[in-house]
Design brief:
The protein is α/β, with parallel strands linked by helices. It has helices at residues 16-27, 44-61, 90-93, 101-115, 125-135, 180-190, 215-219, 234-243, 258-265, 278-282, 294-306, 309-319, 324-338; strands at residues 2-6, 32-36, 66-69, 82-86, 119-122, 142-144, 167-170, 198-202, 226-230, 246-249, 270-273, 286-289. The protein folds into two domains: 2-148 and 323-338, 3-Layer(aba) Sandwich (Rossmann fold); 167-319, Glycogen Phosphorylase B (Rossmann fold, 3-Layer(aba) Sandwich), CATH 3.40.50.
């Protein structure tokens, strides 16, 4: 069986879709994956042309029997059965992410194209509910296949801490749905109780200021108690997880939630919002709170800081339930069912 895999996001390996595509290529067994790559960098129009015209032609050229797009896109007209992975439906769920008229038109095009897929893969039961509600496809065509966590994410606090003070850590995007201002304000509520503690925030703002809150202004009253680390390397992220006192994740919507899962795997106590997919990912290994309740977030931080041991023990056990190899096996089984 030959599957034409859309490799557009291989040019963006640090994105979630890029990581997912890489893991498919590395781990799917018993399937001839023909990876289709664009010839070079693409703008918006070029990306649309690639998805609708050039990739289908490549799939036919290599005599593929199935097309798989590992993100929310499919050609509207195609001659082959298709699999699409829909990690989330953010533009359709959150109005502020609807974007410009062109972005909304693209989302409608892809919704129409993806409705016709023979199989739709989603990362969580929460995403499945969104797909069934918003795309109105038959339930039997939607398959929940959880993502995994890399083996290198493991507990190890033997090395030096990356910061000179104990810290609460956040990484996972700085756009509005990530709810980082609420984390800063909640940290401010407990800062006087933990005078040596700082809040460390990793990541850089995007170009669209309307979608990226001014976090430095929010943090200004706390002075040097909030540290903005900017973009960090994979090795730096690993060390930050391992040595953090708590990892906090206040997001309002996630299709999966890879960042808190990585923190759990590292034995870091996690406090996490109970929004969308997050409760099913972290299970009972994290302290959950309503994302809009800053007092509850402050209480969760306080509880985790005072009693971290049970969370450190539960985290790796919960994370071990999510395997990239299992993801690959289940994906190959979907391919086989279409053969």
């Amino acid at each position: 069986m030959r599957v034409s895999l859309n490799g557009y996001f291989l040019a963006h390996p640090h994105t979630g879709s890029g990581q997912y595509t890489l893991h498919l290529i590395e781990r799917v067994k018993g399937v001839d994956l023909a990876v289709a790559k664009p010839p070079g960098p693409l703008g918006d129009v070029g990306k649309l042309r690639w998805e609708q015209l050039d990739w289908p032609r490549q799939a036919q050229k290599v005599a593929a029997g199935i097309m798989h797009c590992p993100y929310f896109a499919l050609p509207l007209r195609r001659s082959l059965p298709a699999v699409v992975t829909i990690h989330d439906l953010i533009p359709m769920v959150l109005p502020e992410y609807g974007g410009s008229l062109l972005v909304r038109a693209y989302a409608r095009l892809q919704a129409l194209a993806c409705r016709s897929a023979e199989a739709i893969l989603v990362d969580s039961e929460a995403s499945k509910r969104d797909v069934l509600r918003l795309l109105r496809v038959p339930e039997q065509r939607v398959h929940v296949i959880y993502l995994g966590v890399d083996e290198r994410f493991s507990p190890d606090r033997s090395g030096p801490s990356p910061l000179d003070r104990p810290y609460v850590f956040y990484i996972g995007g700085l756009d509005v749905r990530k709810n980082v201002p609420a984390l800063i304000r909640a940290f401010g509520q407990i800062a006087h109780e933990f005078p040596d503690l700082v809040l460390a925030i990793a990541g850089g703002p995007g170009a669209n200021r309307a979608m990226f809150p001014d976090l430095r202004t929010v943090a200004a009253p706390l002075g040097d108690r909030v540290r903005f680390l900017g973009r960090v390397t994979d090795d730096e992220k690993l060390a930050l997880y391992r040595h953090a006192e708590v990892f906090a994740f206040p997001s309002r919507y996630e299709g999966f939630g890879l960042d808190p899962l990585e923190a759990l795997a590292c034995g870091c106590p996690v406090v996490c919002s109970k929004a969308s997919s997050l409760p099913e990912i972290v299970g009972d290994a994290a302290i959950l709170f309503e994302p809009r309740d800053e007092a509850a977030l402050a209480d969760a931080l306080r509880q985790a800081l005072h009693d971290p041991r049970p969370l450190r023990q539960k985290g790796p056990v919960q994370a071990a339930k999510f395997s990239w190899d299992t993801m690959a096996e289940q994906t190959a089984a979907v391919y086989a069912s279409m053969g």
